[in-house]
Amino acid sequence: MSDSLHIAGKAYGSRLLVGTGKYKDFTETRAAIDASGAEIVTVAIRRTNIGQHANEPSLLDVLPPSEFTYLPNTAGCYSADEAVRTLRLARELLDDHRLVKLEVLGDPNTLYPNVTETLAAAKTLVKEGFDVMVYTSDDPIIAKQLEDLGCVAVMPLASLIGSGMGILNPWNLQIIIENANIPVLVDAGVGCASDAAIAMELGCAGVLMNTAIAAAKDPVRMAGAMKKAIEAGRESFLAGRMAKKLYSASPSSPTTGMIG
């Protein structure tokens, strides 16, 4: 793991983080997660059973915490207080688990983040000892403020949650990455493997996705494609792309020592 992803003091071999919602059943969920190679899986505490309902099937049985790092999230929360209560519940259900994904939404139509409530929730959660990975807008100023509050990773959207529109503003993402001292991961909007590769080529530390895999015609195959895209994009970033040269062609073969 010479090029591992480090979050909250722990190293991960995979830079792909995968959600656990929207699959047809737990069997498909497990198959897709395995194909993705993801080590961190995110779960919506308000929508998925991880012990709240003793007589119902639990995600913990399908994706044991001994095999995966859980990232409980606050999907469906529209205020700081609501998000904080949800993650306190997650900490209790998962035996004092501290790594969490904070998202506070602004409205049910766009699911765009409410950055004011997000900042307030992040401040409270960090004070209570949580390791906060935070979903936010692609505003570089807000991203820096969240870092300064003590979040362990910032996760700006590429485009709206579940839209599959890809990265609509790569320039803002680059500003966030260049100014961050913590991991920056794209969260939301990825639709296909090329979107994930582009995010990694921009310098993102990783990508978090759910719908792009779960809503594919073949989720398991798409999960495998995303794994490869993340790896290829990271390798491309580390290799360093050639400079772009407008109207300046350059032969790929030598121009000296030619026969004849």
What features would you highlight for this structure?
single chain; 260 residues; 16% strand; 5-stranded parallel β-sheet; 10 strands; 9 helices
Description:
This protein is an alpha/beta fold and 260 residues long. A five-stranded parallel β-sheet has the order 5-4-3-10-9. A hairpin with a 2-residue loop joins strand 1 and strand 2. The longest helix is centred in the C-terminal third of the chain and has 21 residues. It is globular, with a radius of gyration of 20 Å. The N and C termini lie far apart (51 Å).
Rg from Cα: 20 Å
Count the E strands: 10
Mean pLDDT rating: 91
Order of helices and strands: EEEHEHEHEHEHEHEHEHH
Q: Which residues sit in consecutive blocks of at least 5 with pLDDT less than 50?
A: none
The main sheet orders its strands as: 5-4-3-10-9
Bin the helical content: 25-40%
Rough shape? globular
Number of helices: 9
Largest sheet: 5 strands, parallel
Structural class by helix and strand composition: alpha/beta
First CA to last CA: what distance?
51 Å
Estimated share of beta-strand residues:
15-25%
